[in-house]
Structure formats: structure tokens, C-alpha cells
Amino acid sequence: MALPDPSEYRTFDYGPNWSQTVSGGLSFRTQIDVSRSGREQRAALRNEPRRTIEFTILLNADEMRAFARLMAKWQNRLMVLADPIRAAETPLATADGTISLPVADLAEWMAAGESVFLIDGERRLLCEIDSVLDDRVAGYGVNYGNDYGGTDYPDSIVFSDDLGATWPVGTIVRPALVGRLAASVRGSHPTSDVVQSSILFSVDPGSDVFDPAGPGYDLLDGREVLARKPNWSASPESTFEWGPENVDYDYGRIATYQPIAFPTLLRRATYLEQDRAGEGYLTAFFVRQRGQRGEFLMPTWMNDLPLAAALIDGESTLTVLGTETVDEFADDPIYRALMVYMNDGRRIYREIESIVADSGNSVITLTSPWLGDYALSEIAVVCWMPVFRFATDQLTMQHLVEGAAQTQLTMRSLEYLDAESPITGHDGAAQSVLELWGDWVFLELDGIDYEINTHYPLITQAVP
Over the stretch 97-143, which tens digit does the pLDDT of each residue have? Predict the structure, then answer.
């Protein structure tokens, strides 16, 4: 979003004190109607999330006085803040007077018309993006790129005006957020020349850029899978709910009914992400779901289904020790999908067709066969994968240090029905790659695809 007229705002130039937690919050709004039978109808009342940022500043001497002057005149007016959470670094220095800046990777907030801060120590520059250049388009075909012995071209941001003097390697680029401070800003004074203040910054709705991206590689039966493993050191919690409907007049007998035919599982877990990519995955996933509105599959990550035999290529069955699985889950409306988690990190998802008893064990028949042989020694766990939705419209990412974050999520299970908004799954070849080698191969294949479909034609046209 382009900035308003300079007379209408001031920049908030005080960064967070990283000895305290920096929190970034997203909030949606969902209307949920629940029938007597427990089925839900959910409607998203907010298409874009509201965003807040909370952090603590520690200022002394001149900074403290400048902060007091800012609060005296501009506390209730527009401010522009350098996002303390999202950032990129420059891998190359710029020349004097240039209008472009190299970045390692393009982010969704690097788009034409958006504004960013360039930060090098105490030096800050607020500027507007005119366009962006992708290295895979700009570099190849000019001098063949690094893979062909030429110069490596990073992604670049092109600005409306020149950047003045040189910006060195490691210059930080941060989105410029337009918003307002809280109506009450409290500060404490350890000494007469020091102030420590808690800042709550609310981003103006519609002024920030959110890119929910695609559904990723983890898909089953028209739904996305939340594939992040919880932080087990924080002890995830499970709550089982199946409330009866009682008619009680406070005397005599009580009539009890069970209008809901399935229980509810509430899972509360902490997720620890130690890089911006992991944090971005959870944030984008939450935005795609529109908070409580969407539904997704999520593994329990527990050894729910101990195997009695290896998995055989071409077969569509899985044998579980004992008959308890068929006794309790044969016709269950919740537990209709599972995940096989391999020791090497591969995740194999399957939908369940039926569960029967055979020779003292439970045999689960799946809707599609195994694409390889999997010995028991290769498999870490086999677990249930119910359909869930988020139990709240709020997501708070707590940043303990810059570039790492944790969040606590609560999910509520749903009846396993047909997907509300089905997502097209992978074709057979892609599914085979995922199951036999893992999703890391797709990152390599993306590069190969560019080589074949983009770079190679440009190169052959350029070479005499």
C-alpha cells in the first residue's frame, strides 16, 4: 500500500527491546451455527485478518525526549512502523545513486506500490517499490547465470527514486506498516533519563500484504494437511468431549439424550519454529483457513496404530495389532484417515475404506495402494488423522529472538464428511515422488522445471 501524504503521519523509529518477547497477532471473525446433531455451518465475516504487533522499547536521554514529544502530538494519529518481525537481507552491496536493491528471496510484501524501510545500523530510509525482478527471468538468457559460468543474479527490488549513497551487504529490508498506537501507552522510568514502554501497534485493515500462497504438498481427499510436528517438550494436550443432553426439573428422574453421534477431540499444542520459513508456513496456513472457517486434516503424531506386518507395494491394506481397532473404530465418523510417518521424515497419507478383524488383528483397507515396500524398521509411527478446524480466530506468534517464534494452537475435530471446498490432488507421478523420496525433491524439481521450460529456451536463443 502506498503511504499517505507525509503531512498525515510520522514514522515510529523505535525498535523492540529483544530481551522481551515480540508478539505478532492475526485475527479473523467467523460466525458458527451448530445444529442439535453437532454439525456446523461456518461463515467467514472477515476476508483479511486484522494484525497487531506488541513489543517493548527501552529508550534513554535524547530518544526518551523525542518519544515524549511524539506521544504529545501524534499518539492518536497515523504512524508508520518498520515491521519488527518480517525482514530480508541484501546479499550484495549497491552502488551510489542506484534505484534497485538485491535481496536473497522475494517475499509477498515486496510488491509494486508497497513501501519498505532500508535499515543499516542507525541509518534508515523509507521508500516505495516500483517493481520487482525475479532472478530466474532477469538473469538467465543475458549471460546464462551462475549455472553456466556467468554472474549469479539475485532477486531485486526496483524503487521509484534512487537510494542515495551505497547500501552495504547485510542491509535489512522491512515492510512499512501503516497504523496506530493504542489509546493508552504506559511507560516506566527506572531512572530520570530512561523509559521502558509497552507498545501495541494496530495495522490499518487493508494496508498490509498477506499471501496465503498455495496449499502445499500435503494433501488428501480434497483437504490440506497441517504437517507441522508439535513441540513435545511443551506437552500437547488432548481433551475429549461428548456432552449429553439432559432434561432435569430438579426433582424426580433425569431424562438423558444423545443427539450428537460423534465425540469431539480438542488438541492444544505449542509449535516452535526456528526460522522465518517455518513461521511463514503456520501464518500462511492460518490465513488460508480464515481462522475457524476452514477445515483441514491433522495427524495426532502418536503411535495410535501399532503395526503387525510390513506394508507391501501394490497392496491397499494395513494390519494393526489386536482387534481393538476394529471393535471401536470400524464405523467411526471421525477416524477415517491415517498417516504413516517414516523415520526419514516422509509422510504418507491414506483415506480408510473399511476395518475388519482377521486372525486376531485389525485389517484396515485403504482407498489407494502403497507405492513401495515399507519395512517395520523404516516406520516411526502410524497415527490417526482426523478432520479439524481451528478453535479460535486468533493466532499469536511469540518471537523470543529475531527470526524464531512459537505459538500455541487449539484445534477442534469435526465429523469426516466430504471436503467443503475440495483441493485438487497430485497426479500419480507427483504422488509417487512424494511418497518414495519426500517433498524435498519438489524443491529441486522446481529448479529443474525452470531450467527446462524457461532458462534453456532463453539460453539457446542467446547462444550464436
Answer: 889 999 988 888 999 999 999 999 989 999 999 999 876 544 433 33
Which amino acid makes up residue 64?
A: M
Which set of grid coordinates corresponds to residue 203?
A: 495495522
Query: Which residues have C-beta within 8 Å of that of residue 433, sequence separation ≥ 6?
Result: 441, 442, 445
pLDDT mean across residues, the chain? 88
Q: Tell me how many degrees the CA angle 274-276-282 measures, rounded to the nearest 5.
A: 90
pTM, two decimal places: 0.88
Report whether pLDDT(394) > 70.
yes
Give the pLDDT confidence score for residue 462 in this predicted structure: 42
- Cell, residue 231: 513441540
For 30, 35, 269, 332, 428, the CA distances from 348, given in Å and listed in that order, are 32, 34, 22, 21, 14
Helix 428-436 / helix 440-450 crossing angle, nearest 10 deg: 130
Query: For residue 217, with 0-12 CB atoms within 10 Å meaning exposed, 13-18 middle and 19 or more buried, which class applies?
Result: buried
Taken as a whole, the chain contains a residue count of 464
| All cell numbers assigned to 379 | 516406520
Give the Cα separation of 399 and 409 in Å (integer).
15
Q: How many CB atoms lie within 10 A of CB 459?
A: 17
The per-residue pLDDT for 401 is: 87
Helix H or strand E segment including 440? helix 440-450
Distance of CA 5 to the CA centre of its chain: 33
User: Taking 70 as the threshold, does the pLDDT of residue 407 lie above it?
Assistant: yes
Name residue 30's beta-bridge partners.
Answer: 44
Side by side, the strands of the sheet bearing 361-366 are 317-320, 361-366, 347-358, 337-342, 379-384
Tell me the CA distances in angstroms from 302 to 156, 226, 380, 384, one per residue in order.
44, 15, 10, 8
Q: 81: exposed, middle or buried (C-beta count within 10 Å: 0-12, 13-18, 19+)?
A: buried
Of 112, 127, 109, 120, the C-alpha closest to 3 is 127
Other CB atoms within 10 Å distance of the CB of residue 184: 8
3-state secondary structure at position 232: helix
